[in-house]
Amino acid sequence: MTVGLYLGGNAVEVETFLQEVRFVYLYKYSGFSKTDRGTSTMIHLPLGKGLVFLFLSLTCWANSSGAPEGHTGAPGEQTCTVCHTGTVNSGRGRLRIEFPSAGYTPGQTSRMRVILEDPAASRWGFELTARLESAPQTRAGTLASVDGNTMVNTAGAMQWITHTAAGTRRGTTGSVTFEFNWTAPATDAGAVVFYAAGNAANGNGTVTGDNIYTTSLRVAAESGGGARPTFTASSVVDAFTARPGMAPGAWVTIQGSELAGSETHWTPVGGRTLDTRLGGVTVKVNDAPAVLSFVSPTRITMLVPGNTPEGEVPVVIEREGAAPSTVNVRVSAALPAIHCVPDPSGNRFFASVTSAGAGTSLALLNPRGWILGNPAVDNRALRGVRAGEEIDIYAIGLGKTEGETTTDRLFANPVPLATLPTVRFGELTATPSLAAMIAPGLYLVRVKAPESLAAGEVALTLEVHGMTSAPNVFLLVQ
Ligand code: HEC
Fold first, then answer.
1. Going by CA atoms, what residue is nearest to atom 37 of ligand 1?
2. CATH number 2.60.40.10 given to 226-330
3. CA spacing 20 to 30 A to 379: which of 201, 310, 348, 445?
4. What is d(CA 87, CA 110) in angstroms, rounded to the nearest whole number?
């Protein structure tokens, strides 16, 4: 069917349109506050010297191997030189900590290495602890042995990993490596600092003639990754007027925190499937990846796949380097929202429409297009709508089209809606002559403004599948 529209799968116009979606959204909802990320799993343990020595007296002499807890040189800790003679880092060797990647991934286990070198040494020992950079006396993640060369000591919530008797490798010269595992905190806890002290010893079985070294390594959460995305069912809202819900083929915005590492916009290209992965983020709706037009730490704009069933469906945000988050969201047959611009109060919206068939389908974004609306809030608008005038209303969330509802690629020909919406101008009801999806998730409703429409502001709503668009969207009638 032809509706006198030119679209031609024009990616640029669709993109411009959706940038507009974002603009409207940003304008109205920029006050959305980021939820605080929980750090409640981190326990702050005051570790005074008295405490250190208490544990020392309990455990140091009980084990024939391993350094006593709390001698890594971490803030608030001493080093091995409390007992071993000499000055830290004065020998000819060095101590290194190796982390296998540039950053840590929350919840993931990494194989770490401590390498101690010294040309004068023939017996070896070390101790390492992991702390939050923001709270150096708070443990970060979990240390674990992977072989007989190391063992973990604990005191309260704190952990240290140190050498065993076998791990001292008496007789080995040049250098030794200690390997162990570290499991990162479950959520992005900020940068972690590993503190270590090493003893490159002479093997005389005493505290003399050894070289003590210290070092530390800072590891931040993997860039662009890290914390688990946080959102709720009610923070999934229509992209125009921010009313909660989802519908097949609806553009929705997910509000939340840690949703993405940075801002990324889509690049729709005609003839290719639209992006379902943007800035390392994928959103699956009932297991199907949704087209994404924009991702940022606090907002994702996505197109609900056209074949999404009604009812509760899982929405899963998968962000590279972070654990996925799943929230069940209710899908209704429609979630209608009219293209509109907020007034300065931000509480009322004014519809921006076009005179019917005013050129391109997306003429409302074309400065030369025939945009009708409230010029006081939308400077692209020429004037208000006249009674009896035929107009094209642009909307999202009007539900399924005839046949298959296409949401994964651009298309050239408008596809009629399976169910015609009802248009209301205040109390007056009008039946559209045409309602079609003209671009993925974007609908056009052609209707004649009632002849009896009085000049002024009138509430404009669309009703389809028993769902009505926001009551605070107005049309300026002149
Ligand atoms: C509270 C005192 C004390 C502290 C603190 C201490 N050690 Fe020792 N360490 C000893 C004593 C005593 C010996 C000798 C007896 C033995 O080997 O058990 C020793 C021996 C060693 C030996 C064997 C030395 C050799 O030449 O044979 C190594 C290796 C070692 N310690 C590593 C460490 C490391 C690493 C640290 C710091 C992270 C450390 N120790 C901290 C008391 C301490």
1. 80
2. yes
3. 445
4. 32
126 CA from centroid of ligand 1 (Å): 9
Pocket probe for ligand 1: among 83, 151, 208, 212, the residue whose CB has the most ligand atoms within 8 Å is 83
For the Cβ of 168 lying below 6 angstroms from any atom of ligand 1, the answer is yes
- In this predicted structure, what is the pLDDT of residue 226? 59
> Which among 219, 217, 160 is positioned nearest to 188, based on CA atoms?
219
Q: Is the CB of 120 under 6 A from ligand 1?
A: no
> Residue 182 pLDDT more than 50?
yes
Tokens of 366: 């074309």
Tokens linked to 234? 């009610």
Q: What six digits make up the tokens of 373? A: 């609306």
Options 3.90.180.10, 2.60.40.10, 3.30.750.24, 2.40.50.140; CATH for 19-26+336-477 is 2.60.40.10
pLDDT above 90 covers a percentage of the chain that reads 59
Q: Identify the pLDDT of residue 270.
A: 67
**Is the shortest distance between the CB of 150 and ligand 1 below 6 Å?**
no
Q: Parallel, antiparallel, or unpaired for β 473-477 and 349-351?
A: parallel
For ligand 1, say whether the CB of 235 is within 6 Å of any of its atoms: no
Confidence (pTM): 0.53
Among protein residues, the one whose CA lies closest to atom 26 of ligand 1: 203
For residue 207, the CA-to-ligand 1 centroid distance in Å is: 6
Phi and psi at residue 226, in whole multiples of 5°? 120, -110
- 379 token code pair: 């400077």
Question: Ligand 1 centroid to 125 CA: how many Å?
Answer: 8
Q: Which contiguous run of DSSP H or E holds residue 17? A: helix 11-29
Contact at 8 Å (CB) between 351 and 340?
A: yes
| Residue 429 tokens, joined | 């009801």
Tokens of 257: 């925190």
Nearest CA to ligand 1 atom 17: 205
Structure tokens at 97: 């900590």
Within 332-401, strands assigned E span 337-338, 340-342, 349-351, 353-355, 371-372, 390-396
> Which of 209, 127, 143 has the alpha carbon at shortest distance from 182?
143
Which of the residue ranges 145-154, 257-266, 337-346 would you say has the lowest mean pLDDT? 257-266
**pLDDT confidence of 219, banded at 50, 70, 90?**
confident
Domain boundaries in the chain? 19-26+336-477, 49-221, 226-330
